[in-house]
Design goal:
Length: 385
């Protein structure tokens, strides 16, 4: 009799174990399948809509501002349209973190209002599970935006500026640079103009010796880059000695220099117009010539921080659902999200220039705003209403 009861007890325990295992398996499928799709659909669609709205708004403002260029050289209405379209990928990259913040506030806020968040938590899903699910859904978009910012936006922005320079000067030049200087070893080189065909105009070179001072001044009317060397045309060389100055004239001279046409283009561009590879190359060039590269290091570290910035914005959005703002209305949450996004932008714009002026390491300058708002998100998520 006792043996029969033991068998029944063992059978009952096995049935309960099977129920628990089946429940665990179903919950596991929900966490990595159905939940991801359910949360992700709402998040992705809302973030894309917000990104599109911000891009269109910024494009409209840029279009209105660019209308003042009409009549300058060969610039007309259709070029202004082309100019704004070429800048649009950069707008998307710039405002995508804020789009994650505002889109996350709206999407998760709607889920909370419909008690969907409560249902998910009743299934045993923690805040971390929901956050990871939202992050996994947004990860493909983040990768696309990173690729857009690295391979699409910089060349399109450079082409837009090139087209503006060509049309504004009636095709005479692509970029006009006044007083651009660079250092090559013990020489200082000034370039007046970069023409649309890749040649240089009005180049001056000062050769300096640390012990003897100025040794020579070389002036060239134009230059072109061929086979790793700069071919200088109509060169006037003034060589200084204690007794006199020797002046020589050359139709052509070959200067072996480290800078290339690509690096000259960098000098006329903001670091935000460059790819990571371009920034690394130019930073190494500046360091090899013992020049300050902190401005471009700041831009490079800012690009590195982009994925982390997007994650921080997502957690700020989650804080409006799980933090002290969850009892407020949707309009208040959206306003709070916009305020946080604007606050991040302002802080980043203040800290970055300060880091250059006061000698703060570029890594700190580029990450300070992200760290501060990451701490704010962590605090809001831990604090209850």
């Amino acid at each position: 009799m006792q043996s029969t009861e033991n068998c029944r007890s063992a059978k009952s325990m096995w049935l309960r174990l099977r129920v628990v295992l089946r429940s665990f398996r179903q919950r596991n499928q929900l966490s990595y399948g159905i939940l991801d799709k359910y949360v992700g659909k709402s998040m992705v669609l809302t973030v894309l809509v917000i990104a599109l709205c911000l891009t269109l708004f910024t494009g409209l403002v840029t279009f209105i501002d660019s209308m003042r260029y009409i009549g300058r050289g060969s610039i007309g209405f259709w070029f202004v349209c082309e100019y704004v379209l070429l800048l649009s990928p950069g707008f998307i990259v710039t405002f995508f973190p804020v789009s994650i913040l505002i889109g996350g506030v709206i999407a998760l806020g709607n889920m909370a209002r419909n008690s969907e968040i409560v249902v998910l938590q009743s299934l045993g899903l923690s805040r971390t599970n929901i956050a990871v699910s939202a992050l996994k859904s947004l990860l493909p978009l983040i990768l696309v935006i990173m690729a857009l910012g690295e391979y699409v936006a910089p060349p399109m922005e450079q082409y837009a500026e090139y087209r503006y320079s060509v049309l504004s000067s009636n095709g005479a030049m692509s970029v006009s640079k006044s007083g651009v200087w660079l250092k090559e070893g013990q020489s200082f080189i000034g370039i007046r103009f970069t023409l649309s065909d890749g040649t240089l105009r009005e180049i001056v070179r000062y050769d300096v010796d640390e012990q003897k001072g100025l040794q020579a001044v070389r002036r060239a009317e134009s230059a072109r880059y061929e086979n790793g060397e700069w071919v200088m045309n109509k060169v006037v060389v003034s060589e200084f000695s204690p007794a006199h100055v020797n002046t020589s004239h050359y139709d052509t001279q070959y200067w072996k220099l480290n800078f290339t046409p690509d690096r000259i283009d960098v000098m006329g561009n903001s670091g935000s117009y460059l790819t990571m590879a371009g920034l690394k190359d130019y930073i190494n060039y500046l360091k090899s010539n013992e020049q300050d590269a902190s401005r471009y290091q700041l831009e490079l570290y800012t690009k590195y921080m982009q994925p982390l910035i997007m994650v921080v914005m997502l957690f700020l959005a989650l804080s409006t659902v799980f933090g002290p703002l969850r009892s407020m209305t949707m309009g208040t949450r959206i306003l709070a999200g916009i305020t946080l996004g604007f606050g991040y932008y302002v802080l980043n714009q203040i800290v970055a220039p300060f880091s250059l002026v006061y000698g703060i390491p570029p890594l700190i300058g580029s990450s300070m705003a992200t760290v501060v708002f990451g701490c704010i998100a962590f605090y809001l998520l831990r604090r209850r209403a």
